[in-house]
Amino acid sequence: MSGQNPYAELMRLTNGYQVSQAIYVAATLGIADLLGDEPRDSDDIAAKAGVHPGSLYRLLRALAAAGVFHEDADRRFSLTAIGQCLRSDADRTLGPWAEFVGRPYQWSAWGDLLHGVQTGETPFRHVHGADPWEYRSRHPEEGAIFDRAMTGMSRRMTQATVAAYDFSRFRCVIDVGGGHGALLAAVLAAHPSVRGVLFDQPGVVAGAAAVLREAGVADRCEVVGGNFFERVPEGGDAYLLKTVLHDWDDAEARAILQACRRFIGPEGKLLVLERLVAPPNEDLEAKFFDLFMMTVTGGRERAREEFATLLADAGFRLDAVTRTGTPICIIEAAPI
Length: 336
Ligand SMILES: C[S@@+](CC[C@H](N)C(=O)[O-])C[C@H]1O[C@@H](n2cnc3c(N)ncnc32)[C@H](O)[C@@H]1O
Fold this sequence. Notes:
The chain folds into two domains: 6-91, Arc Repressor Mutant, subunit A; 149-277 and 299-335, Rossmann fold. The chain is 50% helix and 16% strand. It has helices spanning 6-14, 16-28, 31-35, 42-49, 53-65, 81-84, 95-101, 104-110, 113-119, 123-128, 132-138, 140-164, 182-190, 202-205, 209-214, 250-263, 284-297, 304-313, and strands at 40-41, 69-71, 76-79, 172-176, 195-200, 221-225, 238-242, 269-275, 316-323, 328-335. It has a seven-stranded mixed beta sheet, with helices on both faces. Strands 1-3-2 form a three-stranded antiparallel beta sheet. Strand 2 (69-71) and strand 3 form a beta hairpin. Bound molecules: S-adenosylmethionine. S-adenosylmethionine is lined by residues 133, 150, 154, 177-179, 182, 200-201, 204, 227-229, 242-244, 247. It comes from Dankookia rubra. This is Methyltransferase.
C-alpha cells in the first residue's frame, strides 16, 4: 500500500466492490476477446456485445481509469497488460474467475459479511440456506461457471506445479476433488509413463472430457464420480488435493483426509496444494481468500503448522513444503 495519501487510499479500497463488479460485467460480456489486438470504437464493441452503447462506454472508461483498458482521444479502447489477463486465450486467464466472483448469488453472500462477523455463521449458508456445492447442484448453470473459473485459475498454477515437483516417480496419480482435471492433465502430459484418476462429484467430472482430450491424456486417465467424505479411489501412489481442504472447516477437512488415509497404500504420498497463511501484515491474496472461505464455503486458509496438526490428526506426517513460485505451495505428507 502506498500510504502517500491515506484518504485517497481508503477511498480506493472502500470502493473496490464497484471495480470488482465492473470487471465482472466486462468479463461476462467477453469485452477483452472482442477488443482483441487492435484499438476499437466503444460503439462497435457495444454492437458486437449486443448492449447499450452509452452505458458500455461509461463502463469502459471507468475501467480504463482503473488500468484495465486504455482509452484514446476518440473513444477507442484497447487492452492494457492487466486487461490482457481477461482474454480467454491468455496463458494465465482470469476472465472465468472474474465472471464467477461477481455472480449475484456470490455477491449476496458478501453483502451478509457483517452478519458472519457478528455471529460466526457462514454468510452464504445464512443467505441461501445451503452450502455452495448444494446450491450449485441445484443451479447447474452456476456450477458450469464455477468449474470454468477453477480450470482458468488452475492454468496459472499447473505449469509452475509441474515444473516444481517430480511427478515422474509415480505410477498412478489420483486427483481428489480435481474438478475438470486441469492439473492432472498437465501432470500426465508432462509424464507419459504416469496414469491418472480424476475424482470429483459425478456432475462435475461429467464435464471433464474436453480438458483431458485437449491435453491428449484421455486414454491414460480414468474418470470417477463420488463423494470424498465417503471414499476415494484405491490404487494410487500419489493423491492430490488441490485447493480442496480450504473449502472446509477443520472437522470436515479432517474427514476428507481420513478418507484418503483409508485408501492410500503404505508407500503412498499425499500432496496437498494450498496457499499458506503468511505472518502478520503480509500476503493480501491468501488473507482475502481466507475471508472468501469464511464468507462463502465455511472453510479457511491455513498456516503450515495448522496443516501439520490437521494431517497428524488424520494419520499423516507432513514431510516437506515445496514453493512453486505461485501462491500455491505443495505440502507433501506420508501415512504414519
Ligand atoms: C475449489 S474446487 C478445486 C478444484 C480443483 N482441485 C482445482 O484446483 O481446480 C473444490 C472441488 O471439490 C469438489 N467437491 C466438493 N465436494 C465434494 C465431494 N463431497 N466429493 C468430491 N468432490 C467434491 C468440487 O466439485 C470442486 O471441484
